[in-house]
Amino acid sequence: MNKIRSIVSAIAMSIGVVLLVGCKSLPQPEEGYETLVLAPFEANIKAKTNGYLVTHFILNNDPNLSILIDPPSGVNDFNVNDTIPAGEYEVTGYRIDAASRNRIRASGGKGKVYPLQDGKTIPLIVKNGEMTIFPITVEYELKHDKDAGRVRTHIDFHAQDSEEREELIKRALEMENADKWVLSNQY
């Protein structure tokens, strides 16, 4: 956990967004969607805006394979990722993209991928029939900057301590359809 915490603290200096919490239901396992990764986030909204940022945690250095954290599409403060194929992965970096009105975009297509601290990685094992809670929580804050006359966004990351992790597990297990999944115990 210290490895994750040190990686996250280095990432945390750079980054921003909005939260709209959805229903409290998880998808049921079905053919083609047998894996579930819940990516936790926290959001503090102090300004209104049409735009926001989303975070992608890149797996195996493949920018097309990522854990998406998009607060407006979140469920009970989690983003539900059910399209990651079963397998063993390394979280190798992250990307921040601008989004607005249910569209994700970045200038020139996708934003730049930033490596984790010192090229370190975080292991992630995704198995069929299992619900995995991602070990990093993303914090979004949106504030109106009166001096600049615009909205500023800030994104921060942190590794979960045991108390936060237990609370996330509790909240995940209370969601509808959670009983259809086996909780992964890899962290």
From TrEMBL:
PROSITE patterns given in the database record: PROKAR_LIPOPROTEIN (PS51257)
Name the record gives this protein: Lipoprotein
